[in-house]
Amino acid sequence: xxxxxxxxxxxxxxxxxxxxxxxxxxxxxxxxxxxxxxxxxxxxxxxxxxxxxxxxxxxxxxxxxxxxxxxxxxxxxxxxxxxxxxxxxxxxxxxxxxxxxxxxxxxxxxxxxxxxxxxxxxxxxxxxxxxxxxxxxxxxxxxxxxxxxxxxxxxxxxxxxxxxxxxxxxxxxxxxxxxxxxxxxxxxxxxxxxxxxxxxxxxxxxxxxxxxxxxxxxxxxxxxxxxxxxxxxxxxxxxxxxxxxxxxxxxxxxxxxxxxxxxxxxxxxxxxxxxxxxxxxxxxxxxxxxxxxxxxxxxxxxxxxxxxxxxxxxxxxxxxxxxxxxxxxxxxxxxxxxxxxxxxxxxxxxxxxxxxxxxxxxxxxxxxxxxxxxxxxxxxxxxxxxxxxxxxxxxxxxxxxxxxxxxxxxxxxxxxxxxxxxxxxxxxxxxxxxxxxxxxxxxxxxxxxxxxxxxxxxxxxxxxxxxxxxxxxxxxxxxxxxxxxxxxxxxxxxxxxxxxxxxxxxxxxxxxxxxxxxxxxxxxxxxxxxxxxxxxxxxxxxxxxxxxxxxxxxxxxxxxxxxxxxxxxxxxxxxxxxxxxxxxxxxxxxxxxxxxxxxxxxxxxxxxxxxxxxxxxxxxxxxxxxxxxxxxxxxxxxxxxxxxxxxxxxxxxxxxxxxxxxxxxxxxxxxxxxxxxxxxxxxxxxxxxxxxxxxxxxxxxxxxxxxxxxxxxxxxxxxxxxxxxxxxxxxxxxxxxxxxxxxxxxxxxxxxxxxxxxxxxxxxxxxxxxxxxxxxxxxxxxxxxxxxxxxxxxxxxxxxx
Length: 801
Ligand SMILES: *Cc1c(COP(=O)(O)O)cnc(C)c1O
Description:
The relative contact order is 0.10. Strands 1, 2, 5, 6, 9, 10, 11, 12, 16 and 17 form a 10-stranded mixed beta sheet that branches. Strands 20-19-18-21-22-23 form a 6-stranded parallel beta sheet, sandwiched between helices. It has a 3-stranded antiparallel beta sheet with strand order 13-15-14. It is of the alpha/beta class. The chain starts with a helix and ends in a 9-residue tail after the last helix. It folds into 2 domains: 59-74 and 109-448, 3-Layer(aba) Sandwich (Rossmann fold), CATH 3.40.50; 454-679 and 743-771, 3-Layer(aba) Sandwich (Rossmann fold), CATH 3.40.50. It is built from 33 helices and 23 strands. The radius of gyration is 27 Å and the shape is globular. Strand 22 (653-656), helix 26 and strand 23 (675-676) form a beta-alpha-beta unit.
């Protein structure tokens, strides 16, 4: 948009006066931020209404992306960027004597997700708007986001994240679009005048779902899409009907907290209520909106695509069936045809424990009508498939089995498309996790490799690098990130390579300043910044990284005079509060950090910093500063990964197993520009099939490994007698489920190679450049364009090949 500085300054001062009735000089950064947010929202309001109007006028097919998590990060800078007003606003703010960085930091970072799943949904929202596609988000407005992590005595402590305390500048409450979601009660069949039977659903516990909409601003276009998050409230008749305190609390609880766990199912009825709550509210509002512009529901699937991001929103399938049949008298077959043509599903994990299953009694008690519909889907599935495929395979894949509702199977059966998120992951879905369903529905399966919003992870997070790139190849890559490839022409340009070094140094300094002020640890910026940031999980193998730190520590202790390449090991990770093992790993890394950072023999050759409260905002600080990107999951376990892409585009070299999208990153950037190691997925499956992995044998055969692993139980690291033993036992007594010891030697070899290679600045920088240049292909813009073409069948404006 066009904006003059003088105009902005005038509007901003007015905004401050109107909102706070004080002079600018008497406002806090929080107030300055809120006023700026409101002003920008106002500046964009015309685009937002115009976008909705134009979709309606042109009867554009809409995509609704359902996700129980959205992790958008702070919106101020990305909205300014996308509107093209960054320079004007920054300058105006500066000339008013305000500190822009302080204003930026005053914005709470909405933690409405655990990690990669929620961040992917947010990147996709940004990309859909930016390529000019009618893509809406649908999720939950959690009153409290993912917990705030602090360390006390090295242990993780979880504090509530009261992110709405000062209000939310970007959202709009739309009470007039609220709808009722019904739980419990009874279903009975009522005879109609024509003799047919119709289900009546009554004595329900009703919850009012109120939508809060946030505009998702496209990049330098006039598109603004909508992210709709639902909040649970008392129904409007609350005055007449009596609600006990516990009934009120039950309603409140539905959207109170995000489940702080993205892999283990809590098996709790509250989680199921959350899932049905936002699925039902979302589908109701979609149907209502659709019918405001169409007479019949017959062509619904031509105008609406609903995407199920992981299994949590799977109940959109029976919910749409319910609305079509019970509220619009659609016969089953037509309703089923409309529903399956509308729905598509992304699977995000091969971890068995993350495939959601609900005990039938719980499901049926909470959602009796929905259960009847699932039962009928199940009955028809069996009747249709048993004659063709036999009873065994149909038993294994039916939506109901083992006394449970199996959400992933329901999602596959009720959708027309099922995708994995990287080529290896999709292959494993077809061969292993969903192999039976693949046999029955091979045509539904496809791959859509994850992507990231370059705008946030490069243009917002790494402004020095963005400026440097622009100075070399212009700005066209902002619209078409594959053009970053043009940078490879400058591989031999020593001046440019040196400028890249300077940029990295500047970013490392910024992080070092943060670490100094927040943690009191001094780190040197000429050290290798070796970064592992992601949820703490056994399969992601922070333990392998930890063993390498112990090895490096022992090595320096053994010969304090020997020359080493200085290193800083940087971690960021939250552990699910109930995940005992993960919390033990945090404790041990923190204890190890204490030992290493305070040992005079070590000095500044080796530092370990576990930065608390990892989230999108910290990612934006850490990623531009990274030299090494640790992507060391057990092969086959990380479906895609996206921090690998963010780090690549910021010039970090990957130290990676052949897992998830690492494989594609290595292929894109060239093997010689990354460090790969370890078992392949087929090696891992080989061990499973032969059942012959013995971690103890590896331990016995490698004296150096023994020394390192033994440090977990020798009191060398103070204060971890229980936690050290727990990890030690997981590696030896319990046979090392994630093959840490199997990969250890190969991993160490590559770490040593990195220490060597880092000394050759020019060669290193060329590799870094190769990573940046090849990273454009992982832009989420391309990912959503592929979804649009192959799955959703919706148009978009920006041409992306
Ligand atoms: C990108 C991102 C993730 C995903 O990281 P992976 O290493 O791919 O698991 C998790 N959390 C946040 C805050 C992110 O930005």
